[in-house]
Amino acid sequence: MVKNFFLKSDKSPKNIQIKKDIITHFITSGNDTIAELAKELDLSVPTVTKFIVELTDQGLIDEFGKIHTPGGRHPSVYGLKPSSAYFVGVDMSRHHLNIALMDFTGNIVSNQMGIPYTYENTPDSFDILCSYIQNFIDRTGNLKQKIFNINLNISGRVNPESGYSYSSFYFSEHPISETLTNKLNFKVGIDNDTRAMAYGEYMKGVVDGEKNVIFVNVSWGLGIGIIIDGKPYYGTSGFSGEFGHFPIFENEIICHCGKKGCLETEASGMAIHRMILERATQGESTILTEMVKDMSKLTLTDIIKATNLEDPLCIEIMEEVGYKLGKYIAGLINIFNPELVIIGGQVAESEGFIMLPIRSAIKKYSLNLVNKDTSIVTSKLKNKAGIIGACMIARSRLFNE
After folding, report:
1. Starting at the edge strand that comes first in sequence, how are the strands of the sheet with 213-218 ordered?
2. In principle, which of 68, 128, 244, 275 could form an S-S bond with 222, CB 3.0–4.6 Å?
3. What pLDDT is stored for residue 6 in this prediction?
4. Closest by CA position to 87, among listed 401, 381, 382, 396
5. What pTM was estimated for this model as a whole?
6. Would you state the CATH architecture of domain 2-83?
């Protein structure tokens, strides 16, 4: 995509690298003056001026007025031109899809949230997914010509570098990213859904200058996204963040990974759903039996709604799960010593009902010297964290060959 992104007339690798550095600076730091840009990139002002002119002529950056300074000439401020490039993010969950189009500056210009889609690990389900993405792209009209990258969020074991997903749609020897690229005729990458949520919060959410962040995704499953020194941590094979598969409990509950005793079996949306069903079936009182006539169709969304309506059974189970979760988040804090821990995912929509026991357990089980500089907050982007993160990841891969 690099050769398609810059004008073909620019053959010099050195020149292309400088342009990359300038654009990356605008992506990460926002608009700036030529003098500040030259200082940041350790280049001369005439050199930066030359490339700013070229990038402006290419339609990739624009001038956004002048800064009023005391005395002398007022310097111009430059930044990315929003309409020069677009990126598509796709966030896939068990029961729906979110798809969005983002401009070059990181603003979402259109989106489709909550598209009904039942995930199944089958070729037919994969084809349906592709058709939804294609329909969204077709609806972008003329902007379609300026779409540079697409990113698909997938839960489980995902290797973004190789393009393989080992948890979903692992049907052939070809990486899923290659198959999607061929089907959609756009460059497509994949990433883990929780890591994308973490990156979304880091770039556009609750993060405010912190560089070491842990995002805990408490949805149907349980995972973490790790930001170290301002960069997503992938691990050797892209599989970092499998927090839910810590072998913690001596139970006989089989996790979806095939093993028993995983943290996820007793501290996740899946665990909450199982516990509610078991106790409601045993006759315990809950407003869910009135809200959901057929309890076999009970969803996590129903449970969160009942919790926020102060259903005693839901609150009790939410507190039990929150305390267990907080105990092991305390372990993460002891290991990583992060500045910020963000609790996100669907279960976090119960707000204080999950957060109070989490905070209580963290206070009890983490080391005081370690946790005193760690803030525990809820996601700011909520159900849009994944889709914003997917778009941001697509943009971050702009210069990947």
Report:
1. 231-232, 222-228, 213-218, 340-344, 375-378
2. 244
3. 56
4. 396
5. 0.92
6. Orthogonal Bundle (1.10)
